[in-house]
Amino acid sequence: MNKITLINVECLRPKRCVEIYEIASKEGKEICYIYNFEDKFFRYFKTIKSLLYYLKDRIEPKISFTEKAALLDYLLYKNIPSKNQEIKQFCETEV
């Protein structure tokens, strides 16, 4: 099970904000961004770049939720690769 820490909340408009979380496991940790629309719709973004694409061009993310509990369950049990795995995977990809 992961440890979830809320780092910051940026309000964009009333009832619309971006929540920044740190998710830590024994293997590693990562930062993620959650777009919260009226506490009814939650969109998960792994990178700030993908969040900006959504805000600018409305490119929908692959992962979204309609309940906060479902989002938190996802974050609690999300697989977080170690830095060594990420580097190895990056080096092994073909160009």
Describe this structure in words.
β3 (29-37) and β4 form a beta hairpin. The longest helix has 10 residues, at 48-57. The chain is globular, with a radius of gyration of 14 Å. The protein contains 3 helices and 5 strands; from the N terminus they run ββββαβαα. By secondary structure, it is of the alpha+beta class. The chain has helices spanning 48-57, 68-77, 83-92; strands at 3-13, 16-24, 29-37, 41-45, 64-65. Strands 1-2-3-4-5 form a 5-stranded antiparallel beta sheet. 12% of the residues are buried. The model has no long low-confidence stretch (mean pLDDT 89). The protein has one domain.
Shape summary: globular
Biggest sheet strand order reads: 1-2-3-4-5
Which percent bin holds the helix content? 25-40%
DSSP summary, beta strand count: 5
- Strand-and-helix sequence, N→C? EEEEHEHH
How many individual domains? Answer: 1
Helical segment tally?
Answer: 3
Largest sheet data: 5 strands, antiparallel
Q: Residue-averaged pLDDT, rounded?
A: 89
Q: Which stretches are low in confidence, meaning pLDDT under 50 for 5 or more residues running?
A: none
Q: What structural class is derived from the secondary structure elements?
A: alpha+beta
User: What is the CA-atom radius of gyration, in angstroms?
Assistant: 14 Å
Distance linking N and C termini = 35 Å
Task: Describe the structure using short key phrases.
95 residues; alpha+beta; five-stranded antiparallel beta sheet
